[in-house]
């Protein structure tokens, strides 16, 4: 993570106020309550610079194998509102499970504005908080899990600095969601993705001799 991020890695949900026993290495915490139906409607009030991070976080759970989906709607129809908040030392905060006035908040001091170098971490924070919205709590273990606190601790490091680990759900993260909503947890596979997209292919490349040589495309 970029310099200064490590001190923010303690991402806290409201479940932090509840004393939970330490989880064994193959456990999850799913206190709920579950949302009715198979869709959770959300609306975000964040700037466009957050679009990539939000899409990535939503896709993380929408492809988990659980029979539940996050879907973006207009604010009047939303069950969950996503926005900035003053959160002290926490990077994110969320309500746990189904409840009126459900929300996800990200720390305005850390993420406003959202710098490009933080967009992956911001997506991980959102995905962790979406797990709370589903009804999942924190777990304490020595394995790589999205719902651990700090999140994604003990995860293998990418082989190169320009890559990031883009498969955030461990088996138990998925099992927790399936416990609440049914479905079949998809087997996680370690994946690494580019931190920045590949540049578009250059077309109509032309060279002109001289000093310096001029290249146009």
Low-confidence stretches: 6-26
Sheet-strand content, in percent, reads 15-25%
Number of helices: 4
State the strand order across the main sheet: 2-1-3-5-4
SS-based class: alpha/beta
Radius of gyration: 19 Å
Brief digest:
With 217 residues, this protein is of the alpha/beta class.
What does the secondary structure layout of this molecule look like, with pairings?
Elements: E1 39-44, H1 51-62, E2 69-72, E3 80-85, E4 92-94, E5 102-107, H2 108-111, H3 119-134, E6 163-165, H4 171-181, E7 192-194, E8 206-208, E9 214-216
Parallel strand pairs: 1-2, 1-3, 3-5
Antiparallel strand pairs: 4-5, 6-7, 8-9
Helix pairs in contact: 1-3
Note down, in words, how this protein is organized.
A hairpin with a 7-residue loop joins strand 4 (92-94) and strand 5 (102-107). Helix 1 (51-62) packs across helix 3 (119-134). The strands form 3 sheets. A 5-stranded mixed sheet has the order 2-1-3-5-4. A two-stranded antiparallel sheet has the order 6-7. It has helices at residues 51-62, 108-111, 119-134, 171-181; strands at residues 39-44, 69-72, 80-85, 92-94, 102-107, 163-165, 192-194, 206-208, 214-216. It contains 4 helices and 9 strands; from the N terminus they run βαββββααβαβββ. By secondary structure, the protein is an alpha/beta fold.
